[in-house]
C-alpha cells in the first residue's frame, strides 16, 4: 500500500515536494487558443489562465512538468488542480468539468510517478492531490459595508471539496493536500468532506494540510497565528501540517519553529522563491533558497520540503541535493496503522 510506503519513507529521510506548476507553465507561453484546444475551441468566455484545464487540452505539458520535478529529485508531485473546485471554476463557467479536470490531472501525475518508481524502486514517487483554498472565504465578508455577509457557506465548500476529492482519489493519488489555506474554516470544510468520503468508501488516505502566513504579522488572512492554526486542524488524523506560499524560506522559519515544536504530525514547508520584485516576479536563485532552507535542516524543523511560487526544477534539485545529508525531524513512535503491512 502506498500509505505504508509514505510512512516508511518519512521515517527514513526528508521527502522532497515539487515546485511551482504555474511558474513552469508560463514558460510554454500558451495562447488563448492553446488553452482552449480542440475540445473548448468554441467556449463562450476567455479561458487563458485557467491552468487546471490544461490537463485536458495540453496533457503532455503537464506530464512534462511533473517529469522535470521528479528528475530534479522530488519524491512527491502535486496534481494540476489548485483551482479544481466548482467554486473556483465558476469564474470560467466550467463547473461541469470539475470531476474530469481532477481525474485527468491525477491520472497524468500518477502515470509519471509510476514510470519513475519503476526506474528507481528504492525511491518510490508519490502523487498529492492538490486542493486549493478557492477564491471565496467562509470566515470574512467581501463587503466592507456588510460584515455579516458571506459569499460562500460551509456546506457549499464541503460539497465542492468532496467532488474534487472523489475525482482525485478515483484518479489514483496517494494522498490529498489541502493547501495554501488563508481561511481555516475553508480548510475545515475540505477536511470534513474528506473524512465523509473516507467513511463512505471505507478507505484511509493520508491528508496533508498547509496554511499560509500572509505577511510579517505572522497570521493567516483570517487572523490566526501559527499555533492557533495548528490547534484548529490538529484534531484531524493528518499526515503532515505546515506552511507554503506568501513568504520566502527565511521569513517562514519562526512559524515552522512554532508548529514543529507543538505538532505530532510530520511538518511540511514549501516557501516561495523569496519575495516578489516590483514586477511580481521571483529573483531568488536555487542556491540562495537552498542556503535559507539549510536553517530548517540544522534545526530539524521539517519532514517534507518543496517550493511554491517562483520555484523551478533547478530550485528543487538544489533542495534535494541539500537534504540528502540531513536526518528528518523526529516523528512519534510508529502506530499500529503504520506497521500493518
Q: Based on helices, strands and strand pairing, what is the structural class?
A: alpha/beta
Strand-and-helix sequence, N→C? Answer: HEHHHHEHHEHEHEHEHEHEHH
Domain module count: 1
Report the average pLDDT across residues: 93
Give start-end ranges of low-pLDDT stretches.
Answer: 334-341
The percent range for helix content is: 40-55%
Radius of gyration over C-alpha positions, nearest whole angstrom: 19 Å
Tell how many strands the DSSP assignment holds: 8
Estimate the strand proportion.
5-15%
What is the global morphology? globular
Biggest sheet details = 8 strands, parallel
Name the CATH superfamily assignment. Homocysteine-binding-like domain
Q: Could you tell me how far the N terminus lies from the C terminus, measured between alpha carbons in angstroms?
A: 8 Å
> How many separate helices?
14
Instruction: Briefly note the CATH topology name.
Output: TIM Barrel
Spatial order of the strands in the main sheet? 1-8-7-6-5-4-3-2
CATH class division = Alpha Beta
In the CATH classification, which architecture applies?
A: Alpha-Beta Barrel
Cofactor: methylcob(III)alamin; Zn(2+)
Protein name: Methionine synthase
InterPro entries: HCY_dom (IPR003726), HCY_dom_sf (IPR036589), Met_Synthase/Corrinoid (IPR050554)
GO molecular function: cobalamin binding; metal ion binding; methionine synthase activity
